[in-house]
Amino acid sequence: MQHEEHNMPELITVPLESLDSNPYRNLATYPFIEKKVAALQRSINTVGLWEGVIVRQVGERYQTAFGHHRIEAAKRQGLTEATLILRTLDDEQMIQFMGRENMADYNADFLTM
Fold first, then answer.
1. Can you tell me the distance from the alpha carbon of 103 to that of 53, in angstroms, rounded to the nearest whole number?
2. Rg from Cα positions in the chain
3. Separation of alpha carbons 102 and 24, rounded Å
4. For residue 56, what are the β-bridge partners?
5. What does the alpha-carbon distance between residue 4 and residue 60 come to, in Å, rounded to a whole number?
6. Which one of 67, 75, 84, 112 has the fewest CB atoms closer than 10 angstroms to its CB?
7. pLDDT tens digits for 1-42?
8. Angle CA(39)–CA(53)–CA(93) in degrees, nearest 5?
9. Angle between helical axes of 34-47 and 68-76 (0-180°, round to 10)
């Protein structure tokens, strides 16, 4: 990532209701994988929600760059807040994170996305 020295990640705890999806993620094309959400729910129930969700702040809200399944699992487990990794990300970086997540989840070809 460019400007890494100026982009120090910060751990923040926010209400899940203040969290939005990546604006570049199309849930119709790439819906939640139910098996993955269920596995994450079991993990959350056993060890809690790990700090692996990356977000950026937009106004008073936060957009998920990476970790959509983890957030969905947390909501389904009844969590109301989560500790997230806050980074300063531009739109291009949001698309890059979405591509990484989709390639892992759907074995998608990033160029076709």
1. 16
2. 14
3. 11
4. 63
5. 24
6. 112
7. 444 445 689 999 999 999 999 998 888 877 899 999 999 999
8. 125
9. 60
